[in-house]
């Protein structure tokens, strides 16, 4: 079975500042990979290279078999299959909640307006916000915004979902609802790569936890292996700090 | 809201714009007789002045008409400030100039003149109550000259000797008023013109005998329009012989201006002035509105394109857009208008109509301002919006159009309304290239009736009314279409 995501010796530098120093990672279908690590360790940058929001400096990235480094690859086609959820939601404020969800499938000719509306209402129901369909994003709380953002990404029926610190900008009481939606997705078998500081979520949902530090993957394994018996000193130090507060 | 309807509107307006420009350039080709465009001064009585219906008459005009009739050609008269008209002939924009132009050696280098048609000399005039007794009293004081005239050139030759300073005006009426009011102490003007003006109530008196006498001539660009010069000379010889010329001169010299321009006792109240000049004002407002609206549409299209080019992540397009904005925002509108109307035809040899030049000027200048705030508005839309749209698989331009532009445009609405008002006001500058819009209409009416204060008051009110209406319209459109 070929991997959904296959990354080999990935480097990314901004000028002289190298933030990714040779990353290798494979993600299988239905797998949930949670990436943890200190701020500035490169995990978000890495996630953003997977749909080419960041241009890699060197290395190889295969997504669903498409080579992202190849100039001839139609990046828009690749992105249709890779949903992304941002820390700051990035909902489109000039559109209603439902229009946020239906914009891409309609504009890209995947669905008719009517079909998109039906799907959009289904997805909003799935994230618990069907009654907000006609609201504007400014009328929603942070947690609600993030759930709409997830529905928006799902509307393209992606086979991979990327989450870039999806709960970091939320008030604590909003975090649970968003994580629940993500948990449901994982249970349905979505392939997910999640950058987060929610260690509870990582323990509970992740098939694999990957620890980033200084632009390298220092440690990876099942949640039990990484959380209970970390081998790398940086990982031991980091986990000691975040788990024993 | 619906994008197809939007595109249809755009196509419709474009068609109208192109249609107007096309018909405007076709005008010249309509007649079978040779057709010429000839410029004259806005105000230079008794050689050119407006009668009570706003039609141009005067020695120059009547001579031209008589000659055209005999020699079977037609002409379109384009009144402009003397200096602009003289340059427009040299640039090839206009075929000939009949504007009391003195034949001088310097001018002979660049113009071909027809048979000299009127003898003249330069005299100095001062305010009626002036204490100045001779040219010697001018030392250290400022005199008023009209840009580009033979009288001005003569004044400069004696400037050192008498030690006066100079300031320049573009039309005679404003210049006379300046001297009469005492802002400047004297003016140099051609004898027949000065005497005619004094006879008709300008509060000046003649100080000197005519100096530097010479002749007026009909001018064309050197080496060009020789057929027109031949026709002029043949026709002039004929009207001189049969007495038409003498009749024309006699009709104007020594006559009261009111004979042509209407009685001085006409109703000079604001309301009366408005009524008498209704058709001229309406035509002026029409021209101003047309320039404003077409200018705004074209400038918006140009500005949007350049503004977008300024923000796409591509060094070449970014550099191109920044340069365009830098140049056209940096140039004064008047310089740009002269450069396009007078400069470009000198280089290419192709005529550009004043209207086309004016619209192009507005498009480039106002468009550059629009481009700058379009780029600014789009840049101020959070980058996450573009990223979110791209991550869904939308192409750059689709993401721009569906996500970034709608948000950016909303931020730009106040700037747009502001720019519309500026554009309306800027159209007044185009009077300099001979477009008779509202401001030029005011100048022309005042040159006839000397009611400066009241006419400028009326013109100011008209601008305010139009600006108020346009602002309302823009705000209504924003409410109606902006928040759908």
TrEMBL record, chain A:
Q: Which UniProt keywords apply?
A: ATP-binding, Nucleotide-binding, Transport
Domain ABC transporter as annotated: residue spans: 5-239
Q: Name one GO molecular function term.
A: ATP binding
UniProt key word Magnesium: no
Domain of life where this protein originates? Bacteria
What InterPro entries does the entry give? AAA+_ATPase, ABC_ATPase_HisP-typ, ABC_transporter-like_ATP-bd, ABC_transporter-like_CS, MetN_ABC_transporter-like, P-loop_NTPase
The UniProt record lists the keyword Cell membrane: no
Q: Which SUPFAM superfamilies match?
A: P-loop containing nucleoside triphosphate hydrolases
Designated name of the protein: Amino acid ABC transporter ATP-binding protein
Automatic annotation (TrEMBL), chain B:
Q: Name one Pfam family in it.
A: BPD_transp_1
Main localization category: membrane
* ABC transmembrane type-1 domain mapped to chain residues: 285-474
* Topology of this chain in the membrane: Multi-pass membrane protein
The record's keywords, sorted A to Z, are:
Cell membrane, Membrane, Transmembrane, Transmembrane helix, Transport
Q: Which InterPro entries match?
A: AA_ABC_transptr_permease_3TM, ArtM/GltK/GlnP/TcyL/YhdX-like, MetI-like, MetI-like_sf, Solute-binding_3/MltF_N
Instruction: Name the Gene Ontology biological process terms.
Output: amino acid transport
The entry's cellular-component GO terms read: ATP-binding cassette (ABC) transporter complex
TM segment ranges: 289-312, 324-344, 356-378, 455-474
Q: Which SMART domains match?
A: PBPb
Q: Which SUPFAM superfamilies match?
A: MetI-like, Periplasmic binding protein-like II
Q: Where is this protein found?
A: Cell membrane
Name any one GO molecular function: transmembrane transporter activity
Q: What family name appears in the similarity comment?
A: Belongs to the binding-protein-dependent transport system permease family.
Task: Return the protein name.
Answer: ABC transporter substrate-binding protein/permease
Query: What organism is recorded for this protein?
Result: Periweissella fabalis
């Amino acid at each position: 079975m070929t991997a959904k995501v296959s990354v080999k010796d990935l480097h990314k530098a901004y000028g002289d500042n190298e933030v990714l120093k040779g990353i290798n990672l494979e993600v299988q279908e239905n797998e949930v990979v949670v990436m943890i690590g200190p701020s500035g360790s490169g995990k978000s940058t890495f996630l953003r290279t997977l749909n080419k929001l960041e241009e890699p400096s060197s290395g190889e990235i295969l997504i669903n078999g498409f080579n992202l480094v190849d100039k001839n690859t139609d990046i828009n086609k690749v992105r249709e299959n890779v949903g992304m959820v941002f820390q700051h939601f990035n909902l489109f404020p000039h559109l209603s909640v439902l229009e946020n969800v239906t914009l891409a499938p309609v504009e890209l000719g995947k669905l008719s307006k009517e079909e998109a509306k039906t799907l959009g209402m289904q997805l909003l129901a799935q994230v618990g916000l069907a009654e907000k369909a006609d609201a504007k994003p400014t009328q929603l709380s942070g947690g609600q915004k993030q759930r709409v953002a997830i529905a928006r990404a799902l509307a393209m029926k992606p086979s991979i979902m990327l989450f870039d610190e999806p709960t970091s900008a939320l008030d604590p009481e909003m975090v649970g609802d968003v994580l629940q939606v993500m948990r449901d997705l994982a249970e349905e078998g979505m392939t997910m790569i999640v950058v987060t500081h929610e260690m509870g979520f990582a323990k509970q949902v992740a098939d694999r936890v990957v620890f980033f530090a200084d632009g390298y993957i220092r440690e990876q394994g099942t949640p039990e292996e990484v959380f209970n018996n970390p081998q790398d000193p940086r990982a031991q130090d980091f986990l000691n700090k975040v788990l024993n507060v | 809201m619906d994008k197809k309807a939007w595109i249809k509107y755009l196509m419709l307006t474009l068609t109208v714009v192109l249609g107007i420009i096309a018909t405007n350039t076709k005008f010249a080709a309509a007649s079978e007789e040779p057709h010429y465009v000839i410029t004259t001064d806005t105000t230079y009585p008794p050689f050119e002045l407006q009668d009570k219906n706003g039609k141009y008459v005067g020695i120059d005009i009547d001579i031209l008409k008589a000659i055209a009739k005999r020699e079977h050609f037609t002409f379109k008269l384009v009144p402009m400030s003397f200096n602009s008209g003289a340059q427009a002939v040299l640039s090839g924009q206009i075929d000939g100039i009949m504007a009391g132009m003195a034949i001088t050696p310097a001018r002979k280098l660049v113009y071909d003149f027809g048979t000299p048609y009127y003898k003249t000399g330069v005299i100095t005039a001062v305010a009626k109550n002036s204490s100045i007794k001779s040219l010697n009293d001018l030392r250290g004081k400022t005199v008023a000259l009209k840009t580009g005239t033979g009288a001005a050139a003569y004044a400069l030759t004696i400037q050192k000797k008498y030690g006066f300073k100079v300031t320049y005006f573009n039309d005679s009426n404003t210049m006379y008023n300046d001297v009469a009011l005492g802002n400047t102490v004297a003016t140099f003007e051609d004898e027949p013109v000065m005497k005619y003006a004094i006879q008709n109530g300008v509060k000046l008196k003649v100080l000197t005998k005519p100096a530097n006498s010479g002749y007026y001539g009909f001018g064309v660009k050197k080496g060009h329009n020789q057929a027109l010069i031949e026709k002029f000379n043949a026709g002039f010889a004929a009207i001189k012989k049969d007495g038409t010329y003498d009749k024309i001169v006699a009709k104007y010299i020594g006559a009261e201006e009111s004979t042509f321009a209407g009685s001085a006792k006409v109703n000079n109240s604001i309301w009366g002035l408005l009524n008498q000049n209704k058709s001229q004002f309406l035509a002026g407002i029409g021209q101003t509105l047309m320039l404003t609206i077409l200018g705004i549409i074209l400038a918006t299209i140009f500005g949007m394109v350049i503004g977008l080019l300024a923000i796409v992540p591509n060094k070449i397009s970014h550099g191109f857009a920044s340069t365009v904005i830098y140049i056209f925002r940096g140039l004064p509108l008047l310089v740009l208008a002269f450069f396009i109307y007078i400069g470009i035809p000198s280089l290419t040899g192709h005529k550009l109509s004043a209207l086309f030049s004016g619209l192009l000027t507005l498009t480039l200048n106002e468009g550059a301002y629009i481009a700058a705030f379009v780029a600014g508005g789009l840049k101020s839309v959070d980058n996450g919006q573009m990223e979110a749209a791209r991550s869904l698989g939308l192409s750059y331009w689709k993401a721009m159009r569906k996500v970034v532009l709608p948000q950016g445009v909303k931020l730009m609405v106040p700037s747009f309304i502001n720019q519309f008002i500026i554009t309306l006001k800027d159209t007044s500058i185009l009077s300099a290239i001979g477009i008779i819009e509202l401001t030029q209409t005011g100048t022309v009416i005042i040159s006839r009736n000397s009611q400066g204060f009241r006419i400028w008051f009326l013109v100011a009110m008209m601008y305010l009314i139009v600006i108020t209406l346009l602002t309302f319209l823009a705000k209504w459109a924003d409410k109606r279409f902006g928040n759908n």
